[in-house]
Amino acid sequence: MSLSISLTVNGDRCDVDLDDPRVTLLDLLRERMALPGTKKGCDRGQCGACTVLVNGRRINSCLTLAVTLNGAEVTTIEGLAAGEDLHPVQTAFIEHDGFQCGYCTPGQIMSAVGLIAEGQAGDDAERIREGMSGNLCRCSAYHGITEAVQDAARRMASADERKSA
Amino acid sequence: MYSFEFARPGSIDEAVKALKAEEAQALGGGQTLIPTLKQRLAAPSVLVSLSGIAEMQGVCVSDDNALCVGGATPHAVVAKEAAKSFPALAGMASRIGDPAVRNRGTVGGSLANNDPSACYPAAALGTGATIKTNAREIAADDYFQGMFATALDEGEIITEVRFPIPEKANYQKFVQPASRFALVGVFVAKYASGVRVAVTGASEDGVFRWTEAEEALSKDFSAKAVEGLKVSADGMISDLHGPAAYRAHLVGVLTGRAVNAAA
Ligand SMILES: Cc1cc2nc3c(=O)[nH]c(=O)nc-3n(C[C@H](O)[C@H](O)[C@H](O)COP(=O)(O)OP(=O)(O)OC[C@H]3O[C@@H](n4cnc5c(N)ncnc54)[C@H](O)[C@@H]3O)c2cc1C
Ligand code: FES
Ligand code: FES
After folding, report:
1. Model ipTM?
2. In angstroms, what is the C-alpha Rg of chain B?
3. Do residue A73 and residue A11 come from a single domain?
4. pLDDT band at residue A47 under the 50/70/90 scheme
5. Quick check: B30 and A64 CB within 8 A?
6. What pTM, to 2 d.p., does this model score?
7. Which residues of chain B does A74 touch, with a Cβ-Cβ cutoff of 8 Å?
8. Other beta carbons within 10 Å of A25
9. Range of the structural domain that residue B133 is part of
């Protein structure tokens, strides 16, 4: 059985030969592609630590078999910054103390990027909390996380306006 | 996970063929099945992914005014695409789990699994939906056969679900805050032919129709009409999140709220 897939990870095209269909996207990233930024918390869909974007939409990489992703475009936390320039969501998390231990943070940030791209939450705090509800934080940095997402959403919206003006 | 072989067919016919293999199993969004495999509670020989079948994707409105949802359509797509044509169903889909789960979990997977606390079974039974498979059409009233049990045969896949669009409807879910499944959920739908009320999360037999409320609401579609009605706590789920009597009480409360919110 051929289990070779071809996918794009953070802009790079990768041809992957899977020796086993059981490999999740999370394990593929962490153990076979040297991208350990995406974290494993529960490994069963409940905590959001493993959140990445697939074709622009957030998913739990622990619940996705890599073999199902032929042709997909994957973005992980390693793919957000442009060189030394952090993504606006990353900057906002630092400025608003959106973390303590940092274990949930890559998932939180990827989820926030997905949420802002969906364009449904605006900067309404309650809707942001609902939109981020799949990402748990044991350190309970929720207050800072919500502020960071609000701030990043505002900054990205005004940057978009400037671009289109 | 025990080891398995993997197939990703491009059509329903190919999927049905692949599922003929002994111990083959369909894979929808994997939001239930992958954790089950990880816990070694299932051991399929072949996993047949339905995610590459274009004819099982998407949402449309049929000539006879039913919302048709492809069996492999994720919840997030239903939440978006049905927002105008069937807001109560879209609202239900938009509150399943969390955004990552909604981007992967599918209507077919939810109905095939028939979790006693899942939302889609209430919507399907509450609208008298038709579950279309590769082999036949099954009425929702015949489809649900108790907790995690359905009328599906081995290797049969849900290719489409048709939800008749009501005059008014609403789904109320009392969220179990950790899992976000329904502690109790009630779907109320008003048709010219009468009112249907389906309850999930409450009974040990899975989703059920609350016929007393249906009769009362068919005569008078108001929260007042169900105020005095009570559901028996016998056979209700009892766990650390809520005892049977609490769930029975919630059924009445949520039905009233659904009627008030119906649009
Ligand atoms: C954290 C979390 C929170 C959740 N919260 C909710 C909630 O609030 N409400 C709710 O209703 N659900 C909830 N779910 C369940 C989820 O939304 C999915 O609906 C559910 O997991 C099943 O869909 P799936 O596509 O992932 O199916 P899978 O996990 O792929 O499959 C489930 C079962 O269905 C079978 N199957 C899959 N597709 C088909 C098909 N087309 N035809 C026949 N058989 C099929 C499989 O063989 C398997 O037995 C939650 C899940 C998670 C992980
Ligand atoms: S590790 Fe994937 S959701 Fe927890
Ligand atoms: S910062 Fe520690 S878990 Fe969120």
Report:
1. 0.94
2. 18
3. yes
4. very high
5. yes
6. 0.96
7. none
8. 28
9. 5-164
